[in-house]
């Protein structure tokens, strides 16, 4: 019995790196994971793991987020890994944190 048995976790930017590692760790602990990302080919690789559903989702597109939110029946944890590495100009910083 895992520590996350029965929990539903939505993971944003799950296709690689920290997001992928988190998705696999959550599943090992018994969670059902809905893994989202914009990288279709990497996201498809996660589908082979029982307990992981995938969804192509661009978190910078409000319409996609709204549609996805309306489709979700249950949510226990939202784990957001989406972001942009490296330096950026103030306009991009505002976009990342929604502070236009």
Automatic annotation (TrEMBL):
Any one Pfam family match given in the protein's UniProt record, by short name: adh_short
Enzyme nomenclature, EC number: 1.1.1.104, 1.1.1.30
Keywords annotated in UniProt: NAD, Oxidoreductase
The keyword Thylakoid belongs to this UniProt entry's keyword annotation: no
Gene3D superfamilies, per database record: NAD(P)-binding Rossmann-like Domain
GO molecular function, one term: 4-oxoproline reductase activity
GO biological process, any: siderophore biosynthetic process
Gene Ontology terms: cellular component: cytoplasm
Enzyme class: oxidoreductase
Entry annotated with the keyword NAD: yes
Reactions mediated catalytically: (R)-3-hydroxybutanoate + NAD(+) = acetoacetate + NADH + H(+)
Pathway(s) the chain acts in: Siderophore biosynthesis; Amino-acid metabolism
PANTHER family, per database record: DEHYDROGENASE_REDUCTASE SDR FAMILY MEMBER 6 (PTHR43477:SF4), DIHYDROANTICAPSIN 7-DEHYDROGENASE (PTHR43477)
Family: Belongs to the short-chain dehydrogenases/reductases (SDR) family.
Protein known as: Dehydrogenase/reductase SDR family member 6
């Amino acid at each position: 019995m895992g520590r996350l048995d029965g929990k539903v976790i939505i993971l944003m930017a799950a296709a690689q790196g920290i997001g992928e590692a988190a998705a696999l760790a959550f599943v090992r602990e018994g969670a059902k994971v809905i893994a989202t990302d914009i990288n279709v080919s990497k996201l498809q690789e996660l589908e082979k793991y029982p307990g992981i559903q995938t969804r192509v989702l661009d978190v910078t597109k409000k319409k996609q987020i709204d549609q996805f939110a309306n489709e979700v029946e249950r949510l226990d944890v939202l784990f957001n890994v989406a972001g942009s590495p490296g330096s950026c100009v103030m306009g991009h910083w505002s976009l990342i944190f929604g502070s236009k």
